[in-house]
Task: inverse folding
């Protein structure tokens, strides 16, 4: 390594060398070994460098390209090695065994005493290598990457890398002036893993791996297992060591006490870099938890936080799968944010992207000179939509990399759930491909069986290792059994994918089509709102109004609504009331909670100025936010809205056919049978004394939520006091109510 006098573990020495007295010349390296070693293409540098018993003593050989001299020093030992050219120094000392020793290295401007990296045995155990070869190393990040540790009495960093096609690998970084000649790694047999322990290297050091490809050319790569990365556009990996002291034990202990399917689950989706632009993780920790708690959301969902080079990808093109983005701080800063959310009673979900990766030449693409993380078939590897590469889910080590990555975020960062992005693109071989552009599976079908097996293994592993964690699929097709357990066979004889929840993309699309129509036309689209109940219990659903629906010309949620500004806000409020009452969990993207009119842009985030009291229309936006707060509060207080989300007996239509009136009315039931009555009027007229059939065992009803309340910006049409059923049969029930239905509004009523 190059001079670095200030680095820990290295002390200056100024005593004169002994000129090599008592040191015999070593037998020179053969030309092949010398060329491979100097060219960074040797699989076993430890076999050539370091100290080795030979006939007549111990051979010492050191490679230090910038040094003018190297002396072996130890207890009663001081011997200068002979220069062999090209930075090689060697000599045979008349010793009976290899001693404890260090190297005194003289550079033109300084002299350092350092341990010899090639004196250390492998710092990676046989069990790790066995699990790696089996593809069952569920804590892979503890075996691969850069890990600060004590080894053979010295503190330093163990570097390990999987690169089975490489001819040689070197560690490069600030500590060796990015010249890895003196830091060549050794190959650990047939595992494809390379290893080197560098004493004196600690947390905060920048590094990469210089790989010699099969054709002999070099490539410099970031560490696929790096747990910290430089802030983009820089892309070096950073040695990391956590010292965060978690304070969320109570949260972790109780998060798995109740199944997520039978618990309140209301999610606020956040793009952290733009929620409050410029804030660090620690600054976010002082604002985000209190904001989310005040609005009553049970969880936040973070758009991808794994390191990514292009901010405009919103994190969906990942290069650092094990590193939280450095844009807002260190990994421990990110832990601090999660800890703060947990202590505020907020669960943390994270978008996870195992479907593809970008082609950056310092990242995963053709990592060691050949396709490694991607399939060898270029047409199969190329993702047709995003210009990225797909993972090779059939390769044991790649599947292990991804499964361990899912576990990593849950175990190391206490993440409570993973929302898996773009699942449909993984499941189908013909996804976005035309005839002739894809090859059927072994059964002649279009299903990607390797991806299916990977998703099943990932879900089973996460649920086994991480109690209380939920996995959520963004899956846009009718794949059978997305949220069915992996060991339960479906009608086709195939086990489920094993997800806990699935985004209901069909509900999202259909309902947004409906509310975007003028009220006079909605009767022709009535079925698009009721259709979701035909399949509502086919999977365990989340109802998402996500970032994807408020960008790229799709307009913000309130701007999708027709009519004037009052009608737009009223429909927005009515829609949220309908959404919160519909079977399934809820997700709302930031900015939509206060009816932001503009599309979201990652460059500036939500338009918080709309809530500035000096802005004339501030009450309009604050009213919508107040409604969201009340929706979450009433939702959490009403078991009928979440206890039986996956049970068809928890729902009953009152009237699913009032298309001419633009009205939807249904009942939700808790496990004890207590009901909630939800009625939505998506017409801009008041419907007085609107008769609805209700259960005859409820003596009176009370309005508990009305999106037309004046404090939300509504017109104030309400049903004060108690509503008493009449013995008038209606909608197939023995009793009925006649509430007033406000214009463009949703009502919730509960037994009084």
Result:
């Amino acid at each position: 390594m190059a001079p670095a006098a200030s680095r820990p573990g290295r002390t200056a020495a100024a005593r004169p060398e002994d000129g090599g007295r008592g040191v015999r010349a070593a037998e020179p390296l053969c030309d092949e070994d010398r060329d491979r070693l100097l060219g960074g293409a040797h699989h076993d540098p430890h076999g050539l460098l370091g100290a080795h018993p030979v006939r007549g003593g111990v051979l010492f050989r050191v490679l230090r390209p910038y040094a003018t001299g190297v002396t072996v020093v130890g207890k009663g030992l001081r011997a200068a090695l002979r220069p062999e050219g090209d930075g090689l120094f060697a000599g045979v000392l008349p010793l009976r065994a290899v001693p404890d020793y260090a190297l005194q290295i003289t550079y033109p401007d300084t002299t350092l005493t350092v341990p010899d990296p090639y004196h250390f045995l492998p710092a990676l155990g046989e069990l790790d290598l066995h699990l790696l070869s089996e593809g069952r190393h569920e804590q892979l990040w503890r075996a691969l990457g850069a890990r600060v540790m004590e080894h053979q009495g010295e503190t330093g960093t163990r570097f390990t890398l999987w690169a089975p096609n490489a001819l040689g690998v070197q560690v490069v970084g600030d500590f060796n002036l990015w010249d890895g000649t003196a830091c060549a790694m050794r190959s650990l047999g047939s595992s494809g893993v390379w290893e080197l322990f560098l004493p004196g290297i600690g947390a905060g050091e920048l590094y990469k791996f210089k790989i010699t490809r099969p054709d002999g050319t070099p490539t410099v790569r970031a560490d696929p297992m790096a747990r910290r990365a430089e802030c983009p556009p820089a892309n070096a990996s950073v040695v990391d060591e956590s010292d965060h002291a978690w304070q969320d034990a109570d949260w972790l202990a109780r998060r798995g006490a109740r199944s997520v399917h039978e618990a309140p689950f209301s999610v606020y989706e956040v793009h952290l870099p733009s929620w409050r632009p410029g804030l660090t993780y620690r600054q976010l920790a002082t604002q985000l938890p209190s904001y989310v708690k005040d609005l009553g959301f049970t969880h936040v969902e973070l758009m991808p936080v794994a390191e990514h080079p292009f901010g405009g990808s919103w994190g969906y093109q990942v290069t650092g799968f094990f590193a939280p983005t450095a844009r807002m701080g260190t990994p421990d800063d990110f832990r601090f944010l999660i800890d703060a959310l947990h202590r505020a009673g907020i669960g943390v979900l994270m978008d996870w992207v195992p479907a593809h990766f970008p082609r950056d030449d310092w990242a995963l693409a053709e990592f060691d000179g050949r396709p490694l993380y991607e399939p060898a078939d270029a047409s199969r590897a190329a993702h047709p939509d995003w210009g990225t590469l797909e993972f090779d889910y059939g390769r044991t080590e790649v599947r292990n990399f991804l499964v361990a990555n899912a576990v990593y975020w849950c175990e190391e960062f206490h993440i409570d759930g993973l929302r898996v992005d773009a699942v449909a693109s993984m499941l189908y071989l013909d996804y976005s491909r035309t005839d002739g552009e894809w090859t059927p599976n072994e059964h002649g079908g279009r299903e990607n069986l390797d991806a299916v097996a990977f998703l099943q293994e990932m879900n089973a592993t996460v649920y086994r290792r991480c109690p209380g964690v939920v996995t959520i699929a963004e899956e846009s097709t009718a794949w059978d059994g997305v949220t069915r357990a992996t060991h339960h066979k479906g009608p086709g004889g195939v086990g489920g994918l094993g997800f806990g929840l699935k985004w209901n993309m069909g509900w999202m699309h259909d309902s947004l089509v409906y509310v975007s129509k003028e009220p006079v036309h909605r009767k022709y689209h009535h079925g698009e709102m009721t259709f979701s109940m035909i399949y509502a219990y086919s999977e365990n659903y989340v109802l998402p109004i996500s970032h994807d629906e408020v960008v790229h010309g799709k307009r913000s949620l309130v701007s999708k609504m027709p009519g004037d500004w009052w009608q737009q806000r009223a429909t927005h409020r009515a829609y949220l009331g309908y959404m919160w009452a519909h079977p399934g969990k809820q997700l709302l993207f930031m900015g939509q909670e206060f009816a932001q009119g503009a599309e979201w842009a990652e460059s500036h985030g939500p338009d918080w100025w709309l809530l500035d009291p000096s802005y004339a229309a501030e009450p309009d936006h604050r009213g919508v936010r107040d409604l969201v707060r009340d929706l979450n509060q009433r939702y959490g207080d009403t078991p009928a809205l979440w206890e039986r989300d996956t049970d068809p007996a928890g729902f009953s239509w009152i009237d699913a056919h009032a298309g001419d009136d633009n009205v939807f009315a249904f009942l939700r039931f808790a496990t004890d049978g207590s009901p909630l009555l939800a009625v939505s009027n998506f017409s801009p007229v008041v419907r007085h004394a609107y008769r609805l059939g209700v259960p005859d065992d409820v003596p009176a009803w009370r309005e508990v939520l009305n999106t037309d309340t004046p404090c939300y910006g509504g017109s104030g049409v309400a049903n004060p006091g108690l509503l008493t059923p009449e013995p008038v049969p209606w909608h197939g029930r023995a009793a009925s109510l006649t509430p007033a239905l406000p214009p463009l509004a949703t009502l919730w009523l509960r037994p009084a």
Observations:
- DSSP finds 16 helices and 35 strands in the chain.
